[in-house]
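During the no-cost extension, the postdoctoral fellow (Dr. R.K.) reprocessed legacy sequence entries with the updated structure-token encoder. One reprocessed record is reproduced below for audit purposes.
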Amino acid sequence: MANLEQEIERAQTCPPDELIDFVYHRAPEVLLALLRNPNVDDAKLCLLLARKDLPVEFLVGVGLRKNLLKSYAVKKALLFHPRTPRLIGLRLLRDIYLMDLVQFALSPSVSVELKLQAETQIIGRIPQLPLGQKITLARRGPGRVASALIAEGHPEVLRVALENPFLTEAHLLKTLAREKVPLTVVQSLCRHAKWSQMYNVRMALVRNPSAPLATVLAFLTELTVNDLRELASPGIVPESLRKYLQAEVQRRMHTPKNYPNLKS
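Re-encoded structure tokens follow.
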């Protein structure tokens, strides 16, 4: 016990050249004592925070000391630490730079809650971003962020976002389900080599009044009879399209069963 007390005393008072002796110390009490040492600078603290085995008490101690969190490097290191408590992580997100937020949101070790909060922070900043940063986000950001950029409808950003490797069909369906979807988004999806081939995206495009009629008509032969009937119900699509849906259902009903496109 006396030995531990001596180590604690030394940790909180030792000069800068001796601090390295404590960076990999195992005792939580000694590590916490380091936080009271005025000679611990940002570099030493970040070196400590690079340890994945740090006790939670130490991380909480860093998170509660405003003087330590004046350093952006310390904030980032604390946020990215896999053992940082949830509430501290949520508080830190507000102060993290855009592309660091992107990196954090894409990290596989981040909890779903923190990931969603990071994405929400990014999306909230989108309206104020210059075009160049939006394009970078469209290319490298999480799928939910790419989807938010797609919803803005800027042609240059849209083109890049549709190729985002994290973008999913579910993201696009949420975008297409919005009350007002820019015409450029609908037209781009109708022409896109990958997304226009996906069944649920085609269904969403058929429902969208902005979709070009010629494209929608080309999709009809690929839809099931049950879906055609549902879409042909009153009030789902414009009347001008509804008659084509009804005609397609009738054609299917009178087509021999070996017809290649007959679906139910």
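The chain has three domains: 1-95, 97-167, 181-264. The longest helix spans residues 239-253. The remaining legacy entries will be reprocessed before the final report is submitted.
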